[in-house]
Every structure is written in C-alpha cells, then in structure tokens.
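Customer escalation, tier 2.

The customer says the design service returned an amino acid string that "doesn't look like it belongs to this structure." They asked us to rerun it and document both sides in this ticket. The original structure tokens are below, unchanged.
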C-alpha cells in the first residue's frame, strides 16, 4: 500500500516558500506575467547564486527557483524587491493569484483589465480569508486559458466581459472592465464567507467549484450562457504574428545559463511573458515566417535547452520534480519522461508523476506513469490510461520493464 501523499493546500510563493527535498521552492509571480530583460536576468542570477542553477516555468505562468537554502531566503527576497518582483507582504502576494492570457491581442484590452484587477486585489484586505489556492484568470475571446485552474474567470465577449465562477456553466455579463472587476470581487467576497463558515465547522475551505451552484447573481443581474470551454494541450512553439515568438523548455525546466545567453542577445526593450503552457513568449511585433537576426546568438538553436518546433516529441511529455528533489515522490520522473518522449505518438501525452497528487499536471493524459513504493528491485510505476495521476491504475510495471518495452505503454491506446 502506498502512503497517501500530503496535500499542502497552498502553493509556494516568494514570501512563503515551500520546503522540498532539495531546499526551498520560491515561486515568483511576475506582474501580469511579464518580465523585463533586467528582471529575467536577475532571476537567472538568483538561480545560479542561491538555487540549483535552473528555473521552472509553472502551469500558472509563474517562475520557480529551487534548491534555495533557508539561510539565503532573505537575500533572495531583497533581490526580488529590488527588481520589482516582490509584493508588499505575503497576503497581497497570495491574493494576486491571477493568470493573464499571454497571447491576447492589444485591442482586446485584456492586460488593462488585468492591471485593474491586480490593483483591486492589492487593496482588498477583506479577501484575506480566501483559500490559499483561490485563483483568477483574465483572457481574450479565444478561451485559451480553459485548461488553467481558476475560481473566477473573466473573459472577453463581443459586447463586453463575462464573469464566470468555476463550477457553473453560466456567467454574468457586464459592459466594461470596471464592472467586470467589481462583479468578480462580489463573487470572491461571497465565497470568502462560505470558506469562513466551513472553517468554523472544522472543514477545509474548499474551492469555488464545489459551491458555485448555490451562488445567486448580484441584484439586477442574471445568469447568461458562458462561452464553451475548449480544452487542449496549448499552443505550439513558433511565431505568434504581431506578438512574438513562443519558445519552450523541456518539462518547463530551463538552465539559468541558457536563459542568460538568450537575454544577452535580445534587444534591450524586449519583454518576456511567462505562459501557463510552460513556455516563454519573447515579445516581437515583427514575428513571422523569418526568424530574427538574434535567434542563433540567443542559443535558440540549442535543442538541449529549448523547444522551438511544434513537432518536438518533448512537448508530448510532462513530469513533476520526482525523487529525490521532492520528499513525497516515490521514484524518479524527469529523466524517465524525457527518455520516453520519442515513444509517445503524435496527439498523445505521457505524464510521469512521483505520487498521486499530480502537481505538474491536473488534466488527464493518454498514459500516466505513477511511481509506487519500491518492491525490492527498484522503482515500480502504476500505469493509468486516459486518466489523472490519482486515478485507478490498469497495471503496474518495473522501471526496467518500462525502459525495455516503452512502445507497450501506447499499444493499448
């Protein structure tokens, strides 16, 4: 029997890092998901000087530093503050848990709404009772963030904005950004009250999806049909006309030296956008069929560090930190995922997880390999088909068997 993994109920931040097997995990939330070259350079330097030399791109468009020694946490905070990457306190950081569509077009005014919401959350001390994982998304009309976890979604519509609580197939329609922020805060305050009542009963506060059906619309408003969610693996690397270049990192893990090389080659005024697909958008309004002159100097031809082609098999795999970096992981994950990437058919996805929590991927995968307790001969992996990390497995294989016959994982698809 495998031990039940411990669910923290919160995500790491900068003020409140999370202890792991390789030191502290410090998660940086770039304002509206954007980083200047100077800010990105500071993060690369922090990873080299205080961390394990790598940066992780998270599924909430954040950037993580790992391997931070506890006694160095103060120095990291001071450096983040100097770079404009630290909130005034832990409460404000926790409330500013929003993902802004990184591929929105300027005319959709998504970033303008994101700024307004960010300011409102910064001032909303009455939302301190929201659960630590309570999150927001702000997106354009294309619905690209359908796969991103959010308790309240603000989405561009033809006549204004839709404000949708997670767990309902309906939304509230408003005319402008100011109303969208105001209505979103009303829904958040209602849920904060629900969370307080559950805590008073000795229960976990839960998430919006569990109680959204009981939510009444504000006075004078009515529910309308929400735009249908379209789930997928996210966009492919390459040019995004008018916006820039999407480039990925294997498993969302990027060597600090590779990032530093990229930053030295980029034009100084360039900004980078973190995305929830574990990629970076390098802003370039001229992006198109021709790669820019700085491409090779930036190291983007280096296949070991970057993913720049849509058919790269490493896009078909994901993995959590695994052992020994995570104390709850029951086996290694990342090297195995990359080793098996070439065996994953186009259109399929392989997720390798160290336990049943599925921290690195909440969506279903074609095949999940979940590390189990070792039984004398090295790691053992449960095989879940068309499911999530915590779902019931169809079979179990040793690490040696997986490596010897990787094609069998997808032969039953």
């Amino acid at each position: 029997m495998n031990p039940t993994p411990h669910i923290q109920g919160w995500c790491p931040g900068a003020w409140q890092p999370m202890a792991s097997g390789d030191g502290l995990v410090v998660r940086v939330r770039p304002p509206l998901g954007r980083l200047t070259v100077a800010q990105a350079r500071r993060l690369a330097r922090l990873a080299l000087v205080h961390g394990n030399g790598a940066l992780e791109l998270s599924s909430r468009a954040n950037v993580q530093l790992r391997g931070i020694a506890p006694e160095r946490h103060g120095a990291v905070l001071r450096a983040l503050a100097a770079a404009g990457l630290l909130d005034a306190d832990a409460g404000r950081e926790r409330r500013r848990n929003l993902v802004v569509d990184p591929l929105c077009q300027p005319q959709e005014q998504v970033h303008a709404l994101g700024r307004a919401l960010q300011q409102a959350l910064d001032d909303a001390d009455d939302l301190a009772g929201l659960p630590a994982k309570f999150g927001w998304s702000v997106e354009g009309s294309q619905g690209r963030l359908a796969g991103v976890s959010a308790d309240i979604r603000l989405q561009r519509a033809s006549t204004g904005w839709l404000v949708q609580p997670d767990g309902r197939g309906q939304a509230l329609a408003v005319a402008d950004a100011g109303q969208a922020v105001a209505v979103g805060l009303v829904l958040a305050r209602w849920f904060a009250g629900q969370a307080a009542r559950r805590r008073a009963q000795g229960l976990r506060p839960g998430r919006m999806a569990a109680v959204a059906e009981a939510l009444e619309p504000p006075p004078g408003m009515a529910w309308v049909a929400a735009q249908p969610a379209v789930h997928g693996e996210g966009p492919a690397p390459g040019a995004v006309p008018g916006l820039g270049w999407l480039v990925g990192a294997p498993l969302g893990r990027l060597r600090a030296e590779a990032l530093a090389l990229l930053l030295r080659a980029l034009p100084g005024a360039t900004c980078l956008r973190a995305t929830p697909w574990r990629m970076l958008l390098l802003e370039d309004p001229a992006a198109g069929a021709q790669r820019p002159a700085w491409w090779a100097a930036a190291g983007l031809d280096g296949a070991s560090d970057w993913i720049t082609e849509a058919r790269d098999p490493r896009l078909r795999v994901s993995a959590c930190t695994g052992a020994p970096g995570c104390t709850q992981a029951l086996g290694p994950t990342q090297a195995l995922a990359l080793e098996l990437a070439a065996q994953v058919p186009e259109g399929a996805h392989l997720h390798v997880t160290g336990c049943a929590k599925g921290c690195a991927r909440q969506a279903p995968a074609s095949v999940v390999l979940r590390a189990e307790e070792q039984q004398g001969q090295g790691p053992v992996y449960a095989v879940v088909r068309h499911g999530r990390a915590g779902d019931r497995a169809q079979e179990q294989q040793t690490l040696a068997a997986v490596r010897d016959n990787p094609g069998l994982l997808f032969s039953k698809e």
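Tier 2 assessment: The sequence is consistent with the input. The two ends are 27 Å apart (CA to CA). The chain is about 20% helix and 25% strand. Sent an explanation to the customer and offered a walkthrough call.
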